[in-house]
Amino acid sequence: MHVNELLSLKNKVCLITGGEGKYGRCITEALAEAGGKVITVSPFVNDANKVVNEMKNNAPLDITVMYVDQTNHDSIIKLKEEIKAKFGRLDVFVNNAVLRPMKTYTSPLEQFSESMRVNATGMFDITREMADLIGQSGGGSIVNICSMMGMFGPDLSNYEGTGWDVPPPDYFFHKGGIFTLTRYLCRVLAVKKVRVNSISPGGIFANQHEQFLKNYTKKVPAGRLANNDDIKGVVVFLASQASAYINGENILMDGGMHS
Length: 259
Ligand SMILES: NC(=O)c1ccc[n+]([C@@H]2O[C@H](COP(=O)([O-])OP(=O)(O)OC[C@H]3O[C@@H](n4cnc5c(N)ncnc54)[C@H](O)[C@@H]3O)[C@@H](O)[C@H]2O)c1
Known about the structure:
Elements: H1 3-7, E1 13-17, H2 22-33, E2 37-42, H3 45-58, E3 63-67, H4 73-87, E4 92-95, H5 109-136, E5 140-145, H6 169-188, E6 194-201, H7 210-217, H8 232-239, E7 250-253
Helix pairs in contact: 2-8, 4-5, 5-6
Nicotinamide-adenine-dinucleotide binds at residues 17-18, 20-24, 42-44, 68-71, 96-99, 118, 122, 145, 147, 201, 203-204.
């Protein structure tokens, strides 16, 4: 098969959670630019519509916004039914949504629970339902968006001189969880012909504190944070047939920070 065809998502129905967020909008655009019929879902459909309309003003992309709150099982089932009715199938699911209720180590325990409702229980609920739909469609690909923080402990020197406290523990807990869940799902979903891989990005540039940027970038061989293009090729590769023989794998995308 020609390599362009291997990498193409033409006519593939691709679902992403939180597609209006920082990494989410890059992924949404990438899937659509590769030819996918993209559905982006979140509880904040107004925000999502705004982001998607901007993308569509720049290029003729096939992107639909739908509602889901991944903490609500009924909402996930409704989304599944809507995708079946409107698209008839699902080929790709990108697990990207995140909620960051905890701010630091001493944040209230209730915020740890709230985080798990979205980032652990909700994430698993929507993954299981969408894996079922991909299985009914004959198979496909799930891409979990993890983080380098799911693989390594925090580098506290990044926060020196910023006035920021240590990063929150829930994030390391659930990102480590989705990293390992990827390997579990790769085995369990093979029977449905669903591949499951993950990407563990480093920080994306978002006008962070100047001192943080200084601390961080001097440790990265690439000399910068991730930009809006960095994740695009990686996610299309893992979503497409180009990665047909890659399963249960994690791609660290940190500009060489942990080399
Ligand atoms: N921002 C970074 O520097 C960075 C670094 C490494 C990894 N990541 C990972 O990338 C992914 C995206 O991160 P981001 O910073 O772009 O996120 P973001 O905070 O910009 O957006 C998160 C999205 O999650 C969605 N969301 C929140 N609660 C939800 C719910 N209950 N149901 C469904 N959707 C919900 C929202 O719509 C929101 O758009 C996450 O998995 C994150 O862990 C981000």
